[in-house]
Every structure is written in C-alpha cells, then in structure tokens.
Amino acid sequence: MKAVVIHAAKDLRIEEREVEALGPGQVEVAIEAGGICGSDLHYYNHGGFGTVRIREPMILGHEVAGSIKALGEGVSGLVVGDRVAVSPSRPCNACDYCLKGQQNHCLNMRFYGSAMPMPHIQGAFRQRLVAEQWQCHRIADGVSINEAAMAEPFAVTLHAVARAGSLSDKRVLVTGCGPIGALAIIAARAHGAREIVATDVMGAVLKKALEVGADRVIDVASNPEQLSAYSANKGYFDVQFEASGNERAVRSGLEVLRPRSTVVQLGLGGDVSIPQNLVVAKEIEMKGTFRFHEEFGLAVDLIGKRRVDLKPLLTGIFPVENAVEAFETAGDRTRSMKVQLTF
To answer: Taking the CB of the first residue and of the last residue of the chain, which one, N or C, has fewer CB atoms within 10 A?
Structure first.
C-alpha cells in the first residue's frame, strides 16, 4: 500500500508499506479521505513542534474516513462495505487516567501520527488501515466521505465546548479563524451560543468565519479598535475560545471578557505572558483543552444528522501522489482552510 511518510522537515515521501495483519476485534479500512492538520503541517514544515521532533520515519495523518474491507474475528455491528470515520485516539483503558474517565490523558496513548513517544506512533495517511472495532463510527447515508473525515477536528472543538461549560445564551469570542477556530464557531452555535464574534488578521479566513456562523468578524490587524470597544463596563464576552496561540490574542481577549468569564485555550504556541492582574480582578477562569474522547462519536452523530454543516471548510482535495503539493497548499492561509488527501 502507499503511505505518506515524513522523514524530516520538507522531506515528505510516498512510500510502499506492508498492510498490517488483521487481529481479533479489528477491521481493515480502505482509507478514502484524510485531512491535513496543523500538527501534520508542523512536522512537514519544521520537523516537529516544541520538544517533539521527528527521530525516525513516520506515517502522518489522523483525520481519516473510509470503507471497511475485512473483519477480524469477533467483530460485530459492522459489515464489509460500511463507511466509517476512524477515531485516531487509542487509549489503553487501564491506566489511572483512563479508569477515571479521562482517556484523553492516557499514560499509554497511541494517537495516530505522533512523534511524542519513541518509537513513533505511525499515522493513518495510508491506503489500508487496521483499526480496532471501537474506533470505527458508521457514517450516515448521504454524508460524504470528506465530511466524515472532518469528525476528528470537530471533536477537538466539541471537547473545548465541554470544557467551557454551558454556552446557552452566552456571548462568545473566537480568536483565530483557522480550521479549529472555524469549527469552534460551529460547535458554539450548535450548543446555544447567543452571539459569536470572531477575530483574525486575515480577511480570507474571516469571510469563512461568517459563512459558518459568526455574527460578526473583526480584522484585528487593520481595525483593532473594533474589538477594544467591547472592553467597556468591564467587558462583554462570557467565553473566549482562543484558537490562534498568539499572545496578543490572549491579552486582547482578557480585556473584553466580563468578570467571571472563561478562556478556553485551543491554539498551541510558545510561552506567553498574560496580565495576571486582569485574571485576578475579573476572576477569569483559564482552561486548557486537549484532544477528545467520547466527543468523537458525538461529532459523527451531529454531522450525520445534519445538525452542523462542515462542507464550507473543505477548500482542497488532492490525490495521495500529490501529497507535497497538498501540504504546501494547506500551509497557505490565504487560500486554504481544510485540505484533504484521497487514497
């Protein structure tokens, strides 16, 4: 089978790999669509992120969907031909965190396409993937395979919403309108947000934010005063989903949040300095959010029942043979939101 393998920064190759043996409780999936994530781009452009570095060749990818081609012994509830979205999250379900229901913090997590452990966890950008039955969620009729492959990043934002608490009747600020920021807008709207304002420094992504449900967008590069106006009377917003990883976005958000509001940090960046006096004086709660677990099934369900529309976020589809072009395109924010490979 063909697989998309990263060797070092800007060294992405299409290689032949053997299909893994099918074991009990497992299914073989013909991968048909795979979305390029921000972490995939970090591996491609920089060879990793932070202290996480590529130390051996690794198959990339974790946002995938496809069709079942074979069933292992003991598999039930699925049949050959079923179309499925595949959760890349494979916790051990035996460590302290898993037993507490915090599988996203599993001590022995095997998350597709991760260079955190050594040996690396090989990813899902391959023509055939052997997965556990419980990773596979059947796709509703009428839902495209490309929509289904967006269940994973959508699950990330659904977990962020869960961390924020109830959004019913809340005013929400989303800072950073890349794929995760745009999906946070969709997730917040689905969970009852009263008003959503989104900010970024690029007009192209702000237009997409309006298309997927933001009530107002602000280009903080050219019109920062439009956001500052919300700081009157100690602030306006109840929740901020910070999806840029930019220190200025965190600081500007704290200025316009109401007392006893919540910041949920989605974006990954370096160390940041924040005005602690504002956090204290406004009694602001700052929360991190990391991956997901049960939210993957919810994401597939919401997509399948047409409760959300993720189609506007898909801006490019490339055959696996053109993976390098796909990665270069995905890294260009002026023309790309979510770019996928076909296998």
So the answer is: N
